[in-house]
Amino acid sequence: MATILNTPGHIALDRIDVWFQDEARFGQQNTTTRIWAEKGTRPRAVKQQQFESAYLYGAVCPAKGATQAIIAPHANSEYMREHLKLISTATAFGRHALVIMDGAGWHQQDLADDFDNLTLLKLPPYSPELNPIEQVWQWLRQHVLANRCFSGYDDIVEQCSIAWNTLIEKKTRVIELCTRQWAILTS
Fold first, then answer.
1. Per-domain boundaries in the chain
2. Which residue spans within 51-91 are E strands per DSSP?
3. How far apart are CA 108 and CA 106, in angstroms?
4. What separation in angstroms does the CA of 111 have from each of 81, 82, 122, 159?
5. Is domain 2-8+20-27+49-183 in CATH 3.40.30.10, yes or no?
6. CA distances from 51 to 28, 32, 58, 181 (A)
7. Nearest-CA neighbor of 58 among 91, 99, 94?
8. How far is it, in rounded angstroms, from Cα 134 to Cα 122?
9. pLDDT digits (tens, 9 = 90+) for 36-76
10. What are the residues facing 58 on neighbouring strands?
11. pTM over 0.90
């Protein structure tokens, strides 16, 4: 019902692309994970004490396997608008993007006013499990970015770029991670 109320009435449901959007902080206070090791040994993982980080804004459209991302030094409305611009540009002519996101302070409804082919829909508070991009962040941390040290901001940006590109090199990975039956629109 909320989908219908938040999209222009003249657009058929089969012309709406559902995008899931979020941002995550990656940095020197990194994730440590389990690793394979010879029985009886205890491998060491370095844990940095510095605090430099970057924000990865990511969006996925599971129906098409499409993705958009930017890396920024902060999480704010300015970078959010830039990210929405990427999603709007990636939406084909004659189609409409329904961007589902959480209620972060910089996720303001008026950000969508700049785009004719884009509508924002906020998830209920305290429900990150409804946003499949949370699985993307988990995948990036577990498969690419865990147990690493970063020399500084530029290194964090570089490694986040490599991690995102590793994720999206297989469209099927994005589709399998992020498809939710409840988000498939039919008319």
1. 2-8+20-27+49-183
2. 53-61, 66-72
3. 6
4. 6, 10, 13, 29
5. no
6. 6, 16, 22, 39
7. 99
8. 15
9. 778 888 777 666 566 788 999 999 999 999 999 999 999 99
10. 22, 69
11. no
